[in-house]
Amino acid sequence: MPAPGRPREFKDQRVVEAAVDAFLNKGYAACSAQDLCEQTGLGRGSLYNAFGNKHELYIEALEHYDQEGITEQQRILQQSLSAKERLQTLFEYALPFDFTDQQKPGCLIINAAMERGGMDDDVDRIFRRHVDILEQMIVQVLHEAIATGELPLPQSAVADTYVAELADMAMSSFYGLRVLNKGTQNPALASRIIRGTLTAIFGN
């Protein structure tokens, strides 16, 4: 946390969003103070006087990116569509970031977990929270699908257990897809993974 009394006049959304871009393009370790100054338009003294240090700014950027992502995922999963269509939209909404928007490669939350997971408590906390929230939303969508008959509940299956297993499958495919997209740049592979996951959950 910032030291008590530190001026915060530069801590605004524009600066944090600029830092998001810098960390997306460079990662944490490779992103220098000069990179951050060039991206934000602030001098080094002003930047660190407002945010403390590079790590504090990184966590501010992650928190902002996380909130933006969760808000968009919530919007997608609460649309007036079938459960299958909502999950398909969730999978597909990330594709432009992975394939066509090379100035913002991949997902900052996933990049952070891969680069600093297990060594940075703040990164671990943000990533786990993000995963937990998304999983809860997917679980809700699948319960709604069972209630409407879109997703048949197998005989002898316990609804909560069945839904949890399907949600785990969806989560694994979603995050695995993001990593594969970044490494392979193969849209055809991404489409097959999305179709296969949805077929595994809902059938044909």
Automatic annotation (TrEMBL):
Report the residue ranges that make up the HTH tetR-type domain in this protein: 9-69
Gene3D superfamilies, alphabetized: Homeodomain-like (1.10.10.60), Tetracycline Repressor, domain 2 (1.10.357.10)
Q: Which InterPro entries match?
A: DNA-bd_HTH_TetR-type_CS, Homeodomain-like_sf, HTH_TetR, Tet_transcr_reg_TetR-rel_C_sf, TetR_C
Q: Which SUPFAM superfamilies match?
A: Homeodomain-like (SSF46689), Tetracyclin repressor-like, C-terminal domain (SSF48498)
* The keyword Transcription regulation is assigned to this record: yes
Q: Which Pfam families match?
A: TetR_C_13, TetR_N
PANTHER family cross-referenced by the UniProt entry = HTH-TYPE TRANSCRIPTIONAL REGULATOR YJDC (PTHR47506:SF1), TRANSCRIPTIONAL REGULATORY PROTEIN (PTHR47506)
Name the record gives this protein:
TetR/AcrR family transcriptional regulator
Q: Which organism is it from?
A: Paenibacillus wenxiniae
